[in-house]
Design goal:
Helix content is about 55%, strand content about 0%. The two termini are about 25 Å apart. Helix 2 (about 15-25) packs across helix 3 (about 40-60). The chain has helices at about 1-5, 15-25, 40-60. The chain has a domain at about 1-45. It is mostly helical and about 60 residues long.
């Protein structure tokens, strides 16, 4: 799911570090050369957004009554 929401990226996530960076980018991390590593708040925001996306995908699978 995380790979699916990465804009302009079609490569698979193979390592924990790639997942970490992708989650940070989802939280607003720009991943520029001089930025350093993302912080806990950025990772938390990325995790919250990923959870929302997963909940939305689950909701789409369910039928409306």
């Amino acid at each position: 799911m995380l790979r699916a929401v990465q804009i302009g990226r079609h490569c698979a996530i193979h390592t924990v570090y790639e997942f970490y960076r992708a989650l940070a980018r989802l939280g607003g991390f720009l991943a520029r050369k001089c930025d350093g590593e993302p912080g806990w708040i950025t990772l938390w925001q990325g995790l919250e957004k990923l959870i929302l996306l997963l909940r939305g995908a689950e909701a789409m699978k369910q039928k409306c009554v």
